[in-house]
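Incident log, structure service

09:12 report received: a user says their structure output differs between two submissions of the same chain.
09:20 pulled the input from the user's history:
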Amino acid sequence: MKPLYLCLISLTVTILAACSSCSGNASVVPPSDEFKYTDDVEYYNFSPRLKESQLYAVKVAGEFIKVFPTYEPHLAWFGVDEGTVKVEVSLQSGRIENAVVRPLGKNYNYRIENGRLVIDLHKYDRVSVEVNGDLEQPLFIFANPIDKEKPSKDDPSVKYFEAGKIYDEGHMVLDGSCKEIYLEPGCYVKGNILGVDLEGVKIHGGGFIDATGYPGKYGEFYQPFGIAFCRCRNSQFSDFTNLFANGGWSSLYTNCHNSDITNVKTIGLNSAEGVKTNNDSMDIIGGINLHVSKCFMRGHDDVYCLKSQKFKLKGDDVDGIYYEDCIGWNVDAGNTFEIGYETQLDIKNVHYKDIYAIHSGTGTNGQEMKRAALSIHNGAAGTISNVSYENAYIEDALEFAIYIACLKHSYNIGFDDEGNALSYSPGKIRDLSYTNINVLNVRPGRGACVIQGYDNEHQVSKVTFNGFNYLGRQITSLDDGIWKIKKNCSDIEFN
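09:34 re-ran on a clean worker, output below:
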């Protein structure tokens, strides 16, 4: 397939320190077998008005693609159907001396050849390439599936954004007349999206949404957002990339039921003016039967966050939330895979499988802030129960690896329907399962774990660990030195 070059934007502001590295470099993996590389690649045709990265050059299946620069990570993406794709990364100036390709838990096949990095990728691969120890400006590469079922441009129920064009849409509010947005790979859309009380919403395609400068804030939504959906049922969100450089929540799903979020990539930045902004990547507040899979999220606060109530925005009970093959990086605040702190209602049947916390929680000025790769912070009266973690990789825990606690915090006291503060009432946590947990690296003096109930009546209870590898050794009891706090808990088992 003849390539159409991916052309991209240059942002010229002072680079902020995104996070500090403590992990060192992963070993370079030599090629294992002779690969049969595919050249069936879809190259995205972005507008030539968008400029290219001055830091990285990327070649896919022998053809250069352009790289989208931000003042933090740089982004490159393409489409592929089946087979192995040879991706070559080089610096525009200088040589690659060493590199880490994350998630480490996926064991990517990569090597350095003549000062450039060669990676073997496949459909749905989402990697963070960290060159010469640079965590301030990593390179993210996303291999999307080739979309073979595009909607008609003439369908009045579809908002179709075409490849090769730049759109300035501002605040997009979906209604019953248009519930589908198609982002053709190669489109660049500035604005945010809101949908309320809709059935069968569909937002899909490998295009790019840039909500920078368009933080939505509507009615019952307390936080600014890039993408927000409330009380939507039987909906699909897939394949697009979303950029958000504001304080607030990059994407928000409240009281949604029976919906899928697949292969969505959300990148949160500090402000373009150099002002530090905490931004969550994806918040689910209330909801039933939601599936989140094959996603990549990076933000300056919580990444994958699950709540049951937030101030005036009241959520449902949470029942049946599934995270599978999800990758997260929280830069300098928050948690990577978080339940809490706003938990006024019950949360149950939450399942994590094949999850990767590639960098987690630096803390603020070295202060300990209860931030962790895998965290449950029950800050209110709800009961959190039946939560499972299976095949989790904690690759760079800069504060805590695991934090499980019933606790009180200033913004967790609870609110009535009018937003008035209520007196604090503690909750409970029970029936947790951790299977094949792997802590690969922690900051010296950090990376400990916590199990902490509120009191004897509000405990953390019935927790089972089935294989917990911490820095190369198996953890077999609460008496192991990794546990910083272990109180008001019961029925903790290690198998």
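09:41 both user submissions now match this output. Likely a transient worker issue. Closing.
09:42 reviewer note: Residues 1-34 have pLDDT under 50 and may be disordered. The chain is about 0% helix and 50% strand.
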